[in-house]
Each structure stands twice: as structure tokens, then as C-alpha cells.
Amino acid sequence: MNFDVRARTILYARHGSHAYGLNTPTSDEDFKGICIKPRDYYTGFLFNFEQQEHMGSKSDGVDSVIYSIDKFARLAADCNPNIIEILFCDDSDILKIDEFGEELRSMRKLFLSQKAKHTFSGYAVSQVKRLKTHRGYLMNPPDHVPTREEFGLSEEHKLSSSDIGIVSKLYSNEAAMLSAGLHRDIVATFSREMAYHAAKKRYDQFEEHKKSRNPARYVLEEKFGMDTKHAMHCVRLMKMCKEILETGEVIVKRPDRDELLGIRNGSMNYDDLIEYVACLEAECDAAYNNSKLPKEPDRVKLHYMIADLTERYLRKHG
Fold first, then answer.
1. Which of 100, 1, 107 has the alpha carbon at shortest distance from 313?
2. Which of 16, 172, 199, 253 could form a disulfide with 146 if both were Cys (CB 3.0 to 4.6 A apart)?
3. The whole model's pTM is what?
4. What is the pLDDT of residue 130?
């Protein structure tokens, strides 16, 4: 059974750079929406629907995802940055909304909690790690496939990645191995194996990075020594995290647009950016410690509110 997802969409809005006010002439258009499935999708077992995607950036420059209201609510209750923003976007970025979408928007603050610290800030930290990794590739790229011989290892006696993982869980470092009574030669060999596997993993990741990297983003990396678009979004996420924890609001349309676009255009060098993000992270920690938001959202309350909204929609539309 198929159904007209767009016809049953209760909220459809701009997302991404256009919603943040950070779009450039080359920015793709992103949209996200929420729909309510027909009753048969709730009462039977043959039909399933979680989301409909249209990833058209290579053809029409438009990316769109429409979530079922139940999947959306689960993700929003976890304070997923890409999801919770839909409820807080600027009114000018809403393309479609009905009475049920309005009602969902009216309960948006019930989805917020201190989990924002771990989602918004956590995602930003992961992006910083990617920035550091990519900068390492830029400044010191692997120039050949590592060999076991380079690390003083034979081809006859090898440890697999799983073997190394098991031993690493048992012993945190060489000193721990020696303290446990392992012979120095064994410890030295294991250390060389670890070094070889780390070098091989870095080389493989670098090769995969070269295949999959966005050409336009690579131009930014070469020009500024980092992916400045990633840098901009790291700062944005940290600032939004602090705002949520301090004010209980998700400010999607960015008032700091000029600063953020400046970062994207190279106003901050790599070292200053890393220091700035570290300061913002410390501010997020402080905001978290003083936040008046609940530790977790009231999922039971949200469950029954979403169930009631869904049931009323189904009585009207089937």
C-alpha cells in the first residue's frame, strides 16, 4: 500500500543553510517535513513507513526528507539537532503547515532537555575531530602503503586487528603489559604491530577520503588549511547548544550570521578556531551545569500528546 506522503504532511519547512541564513549562491536547498500515516500503517503489520527521502542535489539541487510523526517524535525527544530545528524554524521558512502542524509546533518546548549538551555539543566535537584528521591529511599526507618490514615485523607471524583490539582492552599501555609479566620482546613486538596497524589504517582512511571528498570543500581545505564550512557549523552548533541550555530556545535563523559566514570565508585560522571552539565547549559545560531544563523530556506526556494528535488526524483524514 502506498499513500500520498505530501498530502498527509502536516509541516514542511526549509532546513540547513537557507534556514540558518547561512546560504551562499551555490548552496543546495534542504527541506524537512512531518506526516501522519494512514490508519492501516498503525493497526496492521503489512505496511511500514518511517520516512520518504528525495536526495536530488546532483539533479535538481533539492534535498527533502519527510518523517512519520512517530519517528520524528522519537528523534526530537532525543534532541537530535537536525530534527528538533524543524519545530523552531523561522515562520518565513515554513512552506506548509496545517492545524495539526501548528499544534505540534505549540508543544515544541516539551521536547527540549539537557540532552542538548550531548547532541549539539557532541556533534560539534565530532566535527572538530574530523577537522583535525583532515588537516593532518593536508599537512602530512601518507605517501605510500605502509609495509610490515618498515616496522621490523615479519610476514610469517601476524596479529590481526581483532587480536590487537583484544590485547588493547586488557592492557592500556606498554607499562601495563610489563607489569603483568609479559616478556619485553613480546611487548616490543606488540607495540610495533600496533604502530603498523595504525599507519595502515590511516593510509586506508586517507585513500577513502580522497575518493569521497567534496571537490568544493577540498578547495577550502587547501586554501585555508581546514574545511571552513565544517568550522562554521562547529561554532554554530556550540552556540546553539549554549542558547538552548540557557534560554530553552532553539534559535535557527542565526543572529550571528556575519561572524559565521566570516569563519566560512576564512576569517579565523586553524589554531584560533580550535581555541575558540574549546572556549565555547567550556561555556556549554557551564550552561549545562546551571540549566533549568529537565535532564530528560517527559516522554510519557509527549507520547500521549502525539497519540491524541494522531488519532484526531486519523478521524478526520483516515
1. 100
2. 199
3. 0.81
4. 86
